[in-house]
Design brief:
This protein is an alpha+beta fold. Helices cover about 35% and strands about 20% of the residues. It has four domains: about 140 residues, ibrinogen binding protein from staphylococcus aureus domain (ibrinogen binding protein from staphylococcus aureus fold, Roll), CATH 2.30.310.10; about 110 residues, no CATH class; about 160 residues; about 120 residues, no CATH class.
């Protein structure tokens, strides 16, 4: 990832120009890894995101804030108490380290002016947000680090704050290209120039070091011990250009995009090393670049954290039902031999005169088989011949009854498993805590979760997801099973088109006709949307059934979201179309 020290230096300048002098209005902590500070000034308000998430640590301005928990975490309440109305007076970055210090001017309980610092350390899995007082003592941290986790640097309340261990690299804010090349010449190994640059220069990422090597060698690999005079001259030129960019913050925000349209990397300079295999998109601000680059990843991570407990509960239910079905099917297989039990009873009844007292088995002729073979039938020596015969009849009747009951139970359990899989699919696609609350309420109504008598009243149900086709038709998608029922059975018109992935858990999808004839192109669009909002994964063609709403009905007593439909057709859509 190219969120390096030079990138942060550009971002720091951007934040400094906009935020210095603003005051903290509100503080939020949407989850355990993020803090959002709402800052106000006469010019307007800003939302500053600080994230210590392992795969997307950063600090940048955002337009929207994630959904917040009803009860703020302890750190959030502490920050609100200490920093509300505090004025941001400085933003500091030590050299080109991936660390920012946000210095605030606040007041204590006695009304005296004090200085408080909020520090963000952007270091992958070791990223952290640390709250420091004016005496450089740690007040608290997003991630506390004790002796059981490391022996090098503790991050605990009341301890003095210390910087992460230095890597002893050259800062481009203090050293020039000559000093950098001089140090590189002393490196013991003959390695690629890009690796040599990474070992010597502070604050550059692999993509930047590779770019310098690419430009120096005109696309050819260069080794530190094999550089020609021409290579050294070109290296000096591009290093000087990089140093000026770092010192003057004269770079621009760029996103590197793969051929499939997915974001690949970010940079403060144009990247040429990938040639035509990628595309480059330039942004107006570094914050805007970061927000777009991390948006999808953050949304998935946030919901993964919030849905973890609920998903674990439903997954355990799925596992229990699956084991139950397997056990019942094994028992049903045992019932398949029930006719043999009846035959044994008949043969014992017909051969009572051949049964010797105290015998463990009897040999009889099986007249049910056209070959009339002699077979052995096990009997209980403690029972009379008649009792042994009745015992086999009893076991036959028991097996016959068990087969009927087990068949019904297996069918019921399989329907329940389909329902639970649809709930898991709804959880996996939930985009807000409110949607998870609706799913949880549904599970409570179905008896899978105990009802909380003191629960707060939920707000009205969220509306269905809404899309518009190329021809202007409205396409609606249910967010969960209860909404699927409401959308299909109450809200939709009987002439609307209903769509659902064939034998795959997913949402009910409705194409509203509005009195018009829905064309095939719109049906394919609706099928793509239905497939996207389902459990369908991977490539290949995905079957989607569709019919008019008039042909969809709900069996009495069935689970939420469960319907039957007739007079339907099936269209196959390509999963790769989702990205378009």
């Amino acid at each position: 990832m190219a969120f390096d020290g030079v990138f942060l230096h550009h971002l720091k300048k951007e934040l400094y120009d906009k935020l210095i002098g603003t005051r903290i209005d509100k503080i939020y902590q949407p989850n355990k890894d993020e803090i959002i500070i709402n800052l106000r000034s006469r010019e307007g308000s800003y939302k500053l995101l600080m994230s210590a998430r392992a795969n997307s640590p950063r600090i940048n301005l955002v337009d929207k804030i994630p959904e917040n928990p009803q009860t703020p975490p302890m750190l959030c309440m502490l920050l609100r108490k200490k920093l509300t109305s505090a004025r941001l007076k400085d933003i500091r970055q030590p050299q080109l380290e991936r660390i920012l210090f946000l210095d605030f001017e606040s007041k204590n309980e006695l009304g005296d002016d004090i200085n408080l610092t909020l520090t963000i350390e952007i270091m992958g899995q070791y990223s952290n947000i640390i709250f420091i007082d004016q005496n450089n003592k740690i007040i608290d941290a997003l991630k506390r680090v004790d002796a059981s986790m490391t022996s090098q640097r503790l991050v605990l309340p009341n301890l003095e704050y210390s910087m992460p261990p230095s890597q002893n690299k050259l800062s481009m804010l203090e050293y020039g290209s000559k000093e950098i090349q001089s140090v590189m010449s002393t490196l013991p190994k003959n390695e690629l120039l890009s690796k040599g640059l990474m070992n010597v220069i502070q604050g550059i990422s692999p993509v930047i070091s590779r770019e310098i090597e690419y430009l120096t060698g005109k696309g050819e690999d260069i080794y530190t011990k094999e550089m020609s005079d021409e290579h050294k001259k070109r290296l000096s030129f591009f290093l000087d250009r990089l140093i000026c960019c770092a010192k003057d913050c004269s770079g621009s925000p760029y996103m590197i995009i793969q051929s499939n349209g997915k974001p690949m990397d970010i940079s403060f300079m144009d990247i040429c090393q990938y040639q035509s295999s990628i595309s480059i998109k330039k942004f107006d601000s570094f914050s805007e670049l970061l927000e777009e680059f991390y948006h999808e990843r953050d949304s998935i991570d946030r919901m993964r954290v919030k849905s973890h407990d609920l998903l674990r509960l439903v997954t355990n239910i799925e596992d229990r039902i699956s084991r139950k079905i397997n056990t019942q099917k094994a028992e049903l297989e045992q019932c398949a031999n029930r006719d043999t039990l009846r035959i044994y009873g008949d043969l014992l009844q017909a051969n009572m005169y051949n049964i010797k007292k105290g015998a463990d088995f009897v040999e009889v002729q099986n007249y049910y088989d056209e070959n009339m073979p002699i077979i052995k039938i096990k009997i209980n020596p403690a029972l009379t011949p008649a009792q042994n015969s009745q015992k086999y009849y009893k076991e036959y009747r028991k097996a016959k009854t068990a087969e009927t009951v087990l068949t019904q139970q297996i069918k019921k359990a399989e329907q329940e498993l389909i329902y639970i899989n649809s709930v898991i699919d709804s959880i996996s696609r939930a985009t807000s805590e409110r949607e998870l609350s609706e799913i949880k309420e549904e599970l409570q109504e179905q008896g899978y979760i105990k009802n909380n008598r003191n629960k707060q009243k939920l707000p009205p149900m969220l509306p269905p997801l809404k899309f518009t086709s190329k021809k202007g038709f409205t396409i609606l998608v249910g967010r969960n099973n209860k909404q699927n029922d409401k959308l299909t059975l109450k809200q939709a018109d009987k002439n609307d088109i209903w769509l659902h992935t064939k034998n795959i858990p997913g949402s009910h999808t409705i194409i509203a006709s509005d009195g018009k004839i829905i064309d095939d192109e719109t049906i394919v669009e609706g099928a793509l949307i239905a497939a996207k909002h389902s459990k369908a994964k991977g490539g290949g063609k995905i079957p989607v059934d569709y019919t008019q709403v008039r042909y969809v009905s709900k069996p009495q007593g069935s689970k939420p979201g469960m319907v039957i439909y007739v007079n339907y057709k099936t269209v196959y859509v390509d999963y790769t179309e989702f990205e378009k």
